[in-house]
Amino acid sequence: MAVKKMKIGLCGLGTVGSGVFNVLTRNAELIAARAGCEVTVTHIGARRDNPNADTSNVKVSRDIFAVVNDDEIDVVVELIGGTTVAKDLVLQALSNGKHVVTANKALIAECGNEVFEVARNNNVTVAYEAAVAGGIPIIKALREGLAANRIEWLAGIINGTGNFILTEMGDKGRAFDDVLKEAQELGYAEADPTFDVEGIDAAHKLVILASLAFAMPLEVEKIFTEGISKLETRDVDYAAELGYRIKHLGIARKTDAGVELRVHPTLIPKDRLIANVDGVMNAVMVWGDAVGPTLYNGPGAGSEPTASAVIADVVDLARLLSAADDSEGKGITCVPTMGFVPEAIKEQPVLPIEAVETAFYLRLTAEDKPGVMSDITQIFSAAGISIEALVQKEPTTGEATVPVIMITNKTREGNMLAAIEQIASLPVVQGEVVRIRVESLG
Amino acid sequence: MAVKKMKIGLCGLGTVGSGVFNVLTRNAELIAARAGCEVTVTHIGARRDNPNADTSNVKVSRDIFAVVNDDEIDVVVELIGGTTVAKDLVLQALSNGKHVVTANKALIAECGNEVFEVARNNNVTVAYEAAVAGGIPIIKALREGLAANRIEWLAGIINGTGNFILTEMGDKGRAFDDVLKEAQELGYAEADPTFDVEGIDAAHKLVILASLAFAMPLEVEKIFTEGISKLETRDVDYAAELGYRIKHLGIARKTDAGVELRVHPTLIPKDRLIANVDGVMNAVMVWGDAVGPTLYNGPGAGSEPTASAVIADVVDLARLLSAADDSEGKGITCVPTMGFVPEAIKEQPVLPIEAVETAFYLRLTAEDKPGVMSDITQIFSAAGISIEALVQKEPTTGEATVPVIMITNKTREGNMLAAIEQIASLPVVQGEVVRIRVESLG
């Protein structure tokens, strides 16, 4: 493929900018194997250095416009935020014939129609996966993965700060103001929390999702927005008593009469998956006429989660540019069939199950007499296996045996099998020892 | 764009085939606006008709090989299943220079390495989004959305039949055999349920996910597989007592010693989102080094959910072929920035919030004396609003008022506001009426 090296100009080196730089550096080889070409930051525009990013091998300009005017750059990554300087920067980059990747939801929501038109006129692309729901590839799901569907509605927890506050109010009965203060101390919320708690940030994201779903222009001013700042803890509690949880949802729904676009606190039946998305996590639920309901969940903000989305856009561009530059190919195999270029796919050792480490659930049937538990636990202790939980059930009337249930900590399966064999051979243990693996998935 | 019409040859007209045909027909206009060209089934190969699909306007051949040898076809959609005839068919299509879209997990898992090589040699693509987790765009997420990440592990509920059985065992204390029989009657499970309940189907899907995650060849024989047929209801119950739910997971994890590839019943802490994915729904959780945890949830099987994934692949191809054939463009804007071609994006009426219909949570403070509830409910009744739940709390000692909490059914917001105004003006009601919208998201 002709594009051997894609050159990135990075504008902004704050939380997300340093994340993008660090992930592109750390995973350079892996990303090249996925993209089909090297992807390298060759020019950074930032007013100041960031101690979290070692940029000593890269050209750094204090004037960010030097990056968009750098002839060598293929793609400009805009991570300075806001709708003033960022807008000028993006428009200049597009006019210079450079592709733009941005995480800037305010820019897309408020100026997207104009920005996209400039991009079209210059035959370049603006990509913005990171603008909604951080690391969750929700833009890609709506634009591509669900392309067969008439989208009927979507609903999202698309502001992590707000969801953190609601989760704390619900789980611990804390008041809004109290949790907000903590969120600010933890760096989740800005000194001026209006954007997050009054739903403005969520409205920016919702208008992008709604436009993608319903083929309508970006018009953020049409969104009905109600914040969570007036929500009382007792209402969160009463809702729970009635079987609901309260989430700050962005909802877009197509009806015969018109489109609903609204951000507000919402009661959701507590058995819905999205009602159980807690803390700073985001989730978007989409209902398509063919697929029915799908849900996408993950971190909605943060340095490397947002970087993950930014770089996904960069890789998309790298694959397309490589394919377009490939005079031999037809330009149709730009996403490698197995995700990596064929040369990168290698035989790898697969562990036999005996070498796999997991925790275990065990159930056995033991005689109901003294010393039994001691015999069992001694075997585990000798094998270096510790017991996290142990329940001995009451014997059923007339039975001389009781079920004993245990959860162990992690150990190699081979080690566990040997210990179980010893336990099963104890005279006080009857029948087989039932064994199910445990994963925390944390 | 040059490709004005993409011609699809559909092989197989069973459950999924009829779904693909029906969705492509029903959503033809919308799909064209997303793909940038018409996408039409022009030739169907099927041994018999399907009463669920009206194919009277399409050429139908009883010999499915007539489809792959039809010179007019751009893309062959293989939905006959299995690894014998389907393999011959796919290889013939690729040799004929046609792109292939398939939902056939057994074919990809068992013959993928060979099939993909033939595709590469013929400079065409094999797409298989529908092969794993039905309508959930998980292949796209792994190949593209998470391309920045070193995948550390993934874990999925990737067999809906098995998950239905486990959910019933857990929720209703039913025995495995009993639920399996019902699943067979409902059409969720085959007459020979081995593929589903012994984890073979899950292993097929897991090897595809693992290859995408870790850049390794498809080697399904290396997967450790343990089914759910020996699982006892009492273990599901004991696990629940200890705070866990049991799911049949496919797990792939990269460790320093090697890759873990395993399908087995697994205890998961019950507060994990994936532990709450119930019934025939699927979910895949992926942990990437940059993004952390993301989760993808939706229907893992069924006619139109699977069709949704098949058509997503078709649209990807249509966009790429249109862009590649576009002599004026650079072939880099193949996915429209806002998901639809610019001409399709139209101003649409947005409903004012007063016209939006939702259910409501209400809380008010009322004097604790007879007749109060009657006054309130009469106002709602006159407004055509019915009350789904009503809780009157006990008065706090010394207080003459009590909180009253209600959940109403759906009504227009304007109607609700008028009713609330009347209620707030009742002499027995004090202060404001708190109002939060309710969505069932069902």
Summarize the structure.
2 copies of one chain form a homodimer. By secondary structure, chain A is an alpha/beta fold.
List the topology elements:
Two copies of one chain form a homodimer.
Chain A: E1 5-11, H1 15-26, H2 28-35, E2 38-45, E3 59-61, H3 65-68, E4 75-78, H4 85-95, E5 99-102, H5 105-121, E6 126-127, H6 138-145, E7 151-157, H7 160-172, H8 176-185, H9 194-197, H10 200-214, E8 224-225, H11 233-241, E9 244-254, E10 259-269, E11 281-288, E12 292-299, H12 303-325, E13 357-367, H13 372-382, E14 387-392, E15 401-408, E16 411-412, H14 413-424, E17 429-438
Parallel strand pairs in A: 1-2, 1-4, 2-3, 4-5, 5-6, 8-10
Antiparallel strand pairs in A: 7-9, 7-11, 9-10, 11-12, 13-15, 13-16, 13-17, 14-15
Helix pairs in contact in A: 1-12, 4-5, 5-10, 7-8, 13-14
Provide key terms for this protein.
homodimer, about 450 residues, alpha/beta, Rossmann fold, Dihydrodipicolinate Reductase, domain 2, Alpha-Beta Plaits, 3 domains, six-stranded mixed β-sheet, 14 helices, 17 strands, about 35% helix
